[in-house]
């Protein structure tokens, strides 16, 4: 089998890359170890930056997102028993975010690839990449009981943090940066009408909480928990008790205790590999970097990576120039490190650290107070939250 770009992984990065390349007449094959049902049902975050929304719209993927997603023009920061709103448009020249779940983006992408008869192979086994430092890199895998060798011009490693592409780069050529946080998030889906009009990020002595939304019938909640907690450690009664305690007495919030139908513990980690390239293998999305979820940057970074990578591949195929491919890693890493810093900062600002001293707690409260009283500081949050234009 032969293609121009072999794409390992059908998450947001791999599927969007394949779609963007298709629009430019560039052929790709996407391979994925999971089934279509599994990738379409995996619950992740739901914040789309303005630039991600624009990219999805421009590439013909915006129809359902515009119908079912919700545009949010601000967030609430809640601490010391009071809520404060950060208004995005007035701080960012009119920008906002859209709340639309990642698995809905995945469903739209898969539908678009299937409609265009794109080559999308699910449930492949034993994938491996070879000959990365040649002009004919290869992906080998088993599919439907057959051993397949896929010859490519380029390979995109879009197979996530636990994927096979990053470890295929010799360790002497990889520089990795890691931080693991001493807490996790319990992520919940609840059958209930919206609790709030905009997301509420709460700093509290008992730990962070986040009230988000999904649809008129389904709401998304997160609670800071211990990193090694299991979902079973959180019976519904404990969840509601914690939420009420962390939110405190709050106006304009209607915390209907609906049926909780999804509970999962999310690990919190920061990670970057440099460079995001080895020969003709290019990494994009979680295979190259992880952010803690606070601020919802993961999917947006994946989209930004593949926008840069697709433009570089188009320049190669249409103009014969490798300059943008040479620049890919440095270009992508500039945005990656900005989002790494922002996600680390939001996480550090809002969570309870168990080894934290009262001094540290007071510093958090002072920074939050500064954030909601200084336009300059609020603007820093807002422009990072809606997403900076960095290319
Ligand atoms: C959501 C997730 C986040 O990490 C965040 O900061 C805001 C919202 C969400 O899933 O809705």
Outline type: globular
Quote the beta fraction. Answer: 25-35%
Query: What is the count of helical runs?
Result: 12
- Placed side by side, the strands forming the largest sheet appear as 6-5-15-16-17-14-18
Helical fraction: 25-40%
**Low-confidence runs (pLDDT<50, min 5 residues)?**
none
Q: What is the overall pLDDT average? A: 97
Cα-to-Cα separation, first versus last residue: 34 Å
Question: What ligand molecules are bound, each kind once?
Answer: 3,4-dihydroxybenzoic acid
Supply Rg. 21 Å
Largest sheet: 7 strands, mixed
- How many strand segments? 22
Helix-strand makeup class = alpha+beta
How is this structure best described in words?
This protein is an alpha+beta fold. The protein is built from 12 helices and 22 strands. The protein has a 7-stranded mixed β-sheet. Bound molecules: 3,4-dihydroxybenzoic acid. 3,4-dihydroxybenzoic acid (DHB) binds at residues 45-47, 99, 199, 210, 212, 220, 293-296.
Give a quick set of tags describing it.
391 residues; alpha+beta; seven-stranded mixed beta sheet; six-stranded mixed beta sheet; binds 3,4-dihydroxybenzoic acid
Concise structural overview:
With 391 residues, the chain is an alpha+beta fold.
SSE layout and pairings?
Layout: E1 5-8, H1 12-23, E2 28-31, H2 36-41, E3 47-48, H3 50-58, H4 63-68, E4 70-72, E5 74-79, E6 82-87, H5 88-92, E7 97-99, H6 102-115, E8 119-121, E9 125-130, E10 138-143, E11 146-151, E12 154-157, H7 165-168, E13 175-180, E14 184-191, E15 200-202, E16 209-211, E17 218-225, H8 236-247, E18 259-266, E19 269-274, E20 277-278, E21 281-283, E22 289-290, H9 298-319, H10 323-350, H11 358-371, H12 375-386
3,4-dihydroxybenzoic acid (DHB) binds at residues 45-47, 99, 199, 210, 212, 220, 293-296.
């Amino acid at each position: 089998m032969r293609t121009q770009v072999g794409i390992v992984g059908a998450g947001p990065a791999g599927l969007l890359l394949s779609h963007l390349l298709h629009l430019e007449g560039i052929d790709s094959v996407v391979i994925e170890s999971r089934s279509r049902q599994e990738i379409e049902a995996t619950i992740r975050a739901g914040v789309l930056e303005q630039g991600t929304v624009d990219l999805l719209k421009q590439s013909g993927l915006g129809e359902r997102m515009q119908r079912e997603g919700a545009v949010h023009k601000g967030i609430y920061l809640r601490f010391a028993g009071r809520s404060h709103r950060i208004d995005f448009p007035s701080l960012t020249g009119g920008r906002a975010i859209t709340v639309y779940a990642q698995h809905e983006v995945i469903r739209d992408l898969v539908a678009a690839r299937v409609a265009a008869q794109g080559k999308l192979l699910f449930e492949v086994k034993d994938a491996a990449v070879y000959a990365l430092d040649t002009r004919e890199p290869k992906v080998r895998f088993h599919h439907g009981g057959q051993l397949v060798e896929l010859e490519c011009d380029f390979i995109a490693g879009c197979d996530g943090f636990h994927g096979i592409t990053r470890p295929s780069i010799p360790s002497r050529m990889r520089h990795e940066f890691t931080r693991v946080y001493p807490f996790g998030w319990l992520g919940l889906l609840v059958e209930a009408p919206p609790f709030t009009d905009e997301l509420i990020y709460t700093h509290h002595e008992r730990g962070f909480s986040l009230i988000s939304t999904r649809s008129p019938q389904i709401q998304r909640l997160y609670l800071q928990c211990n990193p090694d907690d299991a979902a079973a450690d959180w019976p519904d009664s404990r969840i509601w008790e914690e939420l009420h305690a962390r939110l405190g007495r709050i106006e304009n919030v209607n915390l209907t205790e609906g049926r909780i139908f999804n509970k999962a513990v999310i690990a919190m980690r920061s990670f970057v590999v440099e460079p995001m390239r080895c020969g003709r293998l290019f990494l994009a999305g979680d295979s190259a970097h992880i952010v803690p979820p606070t601020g919802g940057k993961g999917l947006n970074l994946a989209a930004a990576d593949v926008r840069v990578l697709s433009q570089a591949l188009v320049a190669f195929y249409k103009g014969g120039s490798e300059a943008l491919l040479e620049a890919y890693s440095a270009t992508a890493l500039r945005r990656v490190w900005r989002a790494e810093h922002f996600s680390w900062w939001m996480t550090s600002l809002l969570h309870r650290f168990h080894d934290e001293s009262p001094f540290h707690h007071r510093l958090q409260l002072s920074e939050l107070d500064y954030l909601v009283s200084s336009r300059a500081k609020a603007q820093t949050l807002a422009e990072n939250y809606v997403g900076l234009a960095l290319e």
